[in-house]
């Protein structure tokens, strides 16, 4: 029997496992349902094209937290990369998040930053009288109807499978925002950005490579025999499943990514493109050969492209909808968790944390747990 059991071999579980095994004498068992480590940020080499790719969709590290960046770069060499996501709108590729290029596309003319601000402010002002209690009302109040219709409504509906009027405003606040300047990339606020040289496995797999860490792949901890432990169990998988859905299931949305090898001339010219018009069968596509961790590949006649669409399918991701009902239900599950002797953490307990925040939370939890395990 191990001192600690960690359920989930994603980023959170593995950062925590590494910290506990290296900072105290505890033995740690990591139980992972899939047959690979890494959870959603897992990457691997595509057999046919030799391209490094994230099967669940492109993952880029972007952080301003010095502890997180120091932790990452002390374990793996990072390739510097300023990520840009483009929206395919009216036959053009417009960089996101919403900035001067998007405003010019919505208003159909060249604008200075001041003119762009004036135009958006004028159109958004009437919507500021309503309470900003949903994606729709917050987006209209911040960016006005033209940008909302062109960039927000179709994309949010396709990705979340819900009317923007039924989604909590945080979905817009976390994912969109607006600037009146030319684009400075997808993460303009991040101090450091990059990709692990050689893929996420070069970061992820060594974390579990410790004599006191034992990994069980392909094991669902909810199935008997349940893992036993001497001191502590930490669960990073969905919180409602852990409590047998006793308060009801959190409402989830499924996405999947279907990977295809295309002729190079049919492929997109930038790494990630979104399709906000709502008319496309997929709402985002990924071309990982264009990411700098694949630069050594040079030109090829074929290109790997991942098409991300709603619903179940290969490389499926299930995530909890941030609706007002779910926010309330998640808070009730958090109360159950607080009264439990099992610690719940990671993606199973949150609506969305990026990898930087995931690492930061795992390091902080380790700081709290290490003294109790010494
Ligand atoms: C589409 C998408 C794109 C993203 N892009 C980025 C990005 O570009 N940059 C960024 O910083 N972040 C990004 N993120 C966020 C990033 O994926 C998360 O921050 C990170 O993966 C969270 O790690 P985790 O370990 O908490 O969760 P997960 O990666 O979900 O790991 C949880 C693990 O638990 C396992 N598990 C589940 N149930 C069981 C069970 N019953 N028994 C045993 N094991 C179980 C799962 O298989 C999984 O391996 C993205 C997320 C999504 C959904």
UniProtKB/TrEMBL annotation:
**Membrane-traversing stretches:** none
Pfam families referenced in this protein's UniProt entry, alphabetically: GLF, NAD_binding_8
Instruction: Identify a single GO molecular function assigned to this protein.
Output: UDP-galactopyranose mutase activity
InterPro entries in the cross-refs: UDP-GalPyranose_mutase_C
**Domain UDP-galactopyranose mutase C-terminal, first and last residues per copy:** 151-350
GO cellular component, as recorded? cytosol
Q: Which PANTHER family match?
A: UDP-GALACTOPYRANOSE MUTASE
The name this protein goes by in its record: NAD(P)-binding protein
Query: Which taxonomic lineage does the organism of this UniProt entry have?
Result: Bacteria, Bacillati, Actinomycetota, Actinomycetes, Kitasatosporales
């Amino acid at each position: 029997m191990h001192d600690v059991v960690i359920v989930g071999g994603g980023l959170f579980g593995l950062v925590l496992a590494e910290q506990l095994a290296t900072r105290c004498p505890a033995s740690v068992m990591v139980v992972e349902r899939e047959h690979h480590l890494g959870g959603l940020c897992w990457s691997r080499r595509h057999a046919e094209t030799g391209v490094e790719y994230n099967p669940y969709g492109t993952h880029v590290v972007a952080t301003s937290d010095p502890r997180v960046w120091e932790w990452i770069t002390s374990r793996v060499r990072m390739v510097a990369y300023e990520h840009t996501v483009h929206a395919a709108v009216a036959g053009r590729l417009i960089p996101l998040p919403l900035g001067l290029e998007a405003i010019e596309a919505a208003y159909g003319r060249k604008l200075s930053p001041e003119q762009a601000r004036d135009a958006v402010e004028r159109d958004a002002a009437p919507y500021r009288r309503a309470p900003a209690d949903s994606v729709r009302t917050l987006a209209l109040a911040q960016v006005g109807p033209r940008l909302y219709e062109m960039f927000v409504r179709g994309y949010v509906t396709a990705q979340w499978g819900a009317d923007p009027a039924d989604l909590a405003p945080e979905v817009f606040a976390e994912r969109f925002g607006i600037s009146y300047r030319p684009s400075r990339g997808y993460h303009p606020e991040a101090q450091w950005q990059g990709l692990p040289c050689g893929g996420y496995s070069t970061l992820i797999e060594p974390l579990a490579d410790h004599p006191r860490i034992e990994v069980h792949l392909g094991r669902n901890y909810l199935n008997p025999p349940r893992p036993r432990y001497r001191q502590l169990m930490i669960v990073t998988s969905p919180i409602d499943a852990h409590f047998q859905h006793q308060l009801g299931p959190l409402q989830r949305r499924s996405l999947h990514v279907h990977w295809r090898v295309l002729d190079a001339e049919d492929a997109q010219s930038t790494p990630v493109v979104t399709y906000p018009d709502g008319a496309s069968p997929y709402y985002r596509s990924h071309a990982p050969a264009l990411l700098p961790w694949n630069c050594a590949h040079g030109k090829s006649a074929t290109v790997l492209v991942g098409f991300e669409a709603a619903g179940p399918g290969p490389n499926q991701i299930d995530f909890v909808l941030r609706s007002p009902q779910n926010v309330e239900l998640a808070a009730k599950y958090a109360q159950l968790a607080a009264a439990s002797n099992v610690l719940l953490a990671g993606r199973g307990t949150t609506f969305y944390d990026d990898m930087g925040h995931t690492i930061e939370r795992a390091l902080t939890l380790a700081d709290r747990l290490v003294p109790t395990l010494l």
